[in-house]
Task: structure prediction
Amino acid sequence: MQSNRPLPITRDLVLLGGGHAHALVLKKWAMAPLPGAQVTLVNPDAKAPYTGMLPGFVAGHYQRADLDIDMVRLARQAGARLIIDRAIGIDTEAKTVQLKSRPDICYDTLSIDIGITSALMDLPGASDHLVPAKPLGRFADSWSALIEDAQLKRRPLNIAVIGAGVAGIELALAMDHRLKELGISGTVGLIEAADTILREASSGARRKLISELKHAEIEVITETTVTAFTEQGFCRGPDDALVPADFIVSTAGAMPHCWLSETSLDLEAGYIAVAPTLRSTNTPNVFATGDCAHLTHAPRPKAGVFAVRQAPVLFENLCADLADQPLRNFTPQKSYLKLISTGRKSAITDKWGIGLSGKRIWRLKNRIDQAFMDQFRHPTNMEIPDLPARRASGLDDLYEAHTHQCGACGAKVAQGTLEKGLDNALDGSLEDAAIINHGATSQVFSTDHLRAFNQDPYTLAKVAAIHALGDIWAMGATPDAVLAHIVLPPLSPKKQAQMMREIMAGAGDVFSACDTKISGGHTSNGAELMIGFSIAGNLDHAPITQSGASPGDCLILTKPIGTGVLLAAEMRQLADGDDYQAALTSMTRLQSEASSLLRDHATALTDVTGFGLAGHLFNILNTSGVAARIDLSDIPLLEGALNLASDGVRSTLWPSNAERAEQMTMTASPLTDLLFDPQTCGGLLATIPAAKTAQVFEAFEAAEEPIWKIGDITQGAPHIEVQ
Result:
């Protein structure tokens, strides 16, 4: 009989950077993963803009979302771990990558696709007043904000584009078109250090582009060196004369990332030197592609088309390297077709000296760009295997939910099922943590764990630690001792040690911030990663329970809700990557300060987790013998949660949580659906005497801790009125 257990992981592939080649590698990996290998993608942002559509976005032909490859969705499709961070170094001897905001990660095979940066960023004032065209995300966001502000204030704009190559001229024409289309007065100027422009273009394309610049009345200033940037504009040599500008863009001075020079990799003018196989010329197991690489056997310009063409060979060679098999060579084409947009929906070709132009060329460019992006826009079908012909009764009803079972708190046992199963097995009420009395003093004790909901052990450990601490904070206690209980997925012994180090680092960051540490625990092997902690907490006062709420108390919440629907959507490749990362940020926000601020004022306190806001509020109402009124408009929501709820996305725990609706007065809607959304690392839910509310809010504001009043406690049997 064959086993359905996953195969052990023996090799780690790290993709450093979310460039076009790596995006295509991930797409191929999703369709044909290498058994026994796992992938980690490191990128500074949750999305990677596509360069080909940037001028069209600037000109107003595309929306901001049209540019973005969602790396969260792509990582989910490929079963890859996504780390939102920036690389700052590589140790090729230890085979580790140093990251800016978290501990080093290990690799067996490393691929680098981090693009380039701007040399002008070293000039005085550049970090505050210059917007380089790359990275594209920052530039696109800055352009959107500039246009919005100009429309709102009805002010003219004076824009300077530094660098009069093809990229600079495309952006200048696009900006000019957008300003005129919106009726925003102003000027666009091109600044070039050389004595001529468009040196890399063919004569036909150059002639037509110069004609476009003249028609748009875009001023071109050559033989001008920029020396500094200020709020009023930029300074040019040799006398540092100030040239006024409201917005300064740079497409010039492209250079490799400086930290590469601190590695042991062979470099050519700062770029990573690679052999025909795209592997480093001096370092086995390290590959490079795109603008950050230099093809030693066939040097080519820095153009996205070469990265796209390299992707299939790169994918094959990465798999071959992980499997200790021979590599194949990449042979770049000698020339390629440039399609240069001209602001309006028209474009010019540049190949073999021919410069065709017009709307048909724009339509061709648009088709090519849209076809490339369509590869990343749609979820990959998650097929459910057919059930055997002979099976036990009742399996059909549970199979789909079992196959798509949510992780984190969405995997909890339903509240009603839990109550029936426990019946009277436990002594006392079901408080957030067990209260242990030692004569005149008391302690609280709680244990909790989470099923993995993504592939990053470091982040999961932080989430699991904060989740377990929630029960301690909800009693008004401070953590004192911690035991870890960890189930590792199938891994080689070496990978087990590496994963344990990442787990302990993530959890250690959380517990050290709470002035405690892990003292011991237990680790075992299993089918999937699970991380949990048992925590003892000290009390210097009576524990805050769920039974002290009184009519007239205010209901307050310390975190927005919506993590359940966002985690469920991400698992189905439906969540927006930025929204998902914002949810992770919310989940990993400590509640120690909030607990401390509530300690002397809360009459009842709990944390909002798997049973949702309504379920945990009912815990307070049932033990306190009161009712509540909440105002939907006052409940804070995570970005994207309401849209997903409107689309019918729900966690697998939602149906059982929604059974509480029988005790509520409300009109069903996507917003009320979120009252039953299971939360992971949710906020603290407290009742506070009305007379103390202002004092509590002032204390939270002074501590820069968020807090929301969402309703009031009322008289009556346990019931929630939703307004």
In short: The mean pLDDT is 90. The radius of gyration is 29 Å.
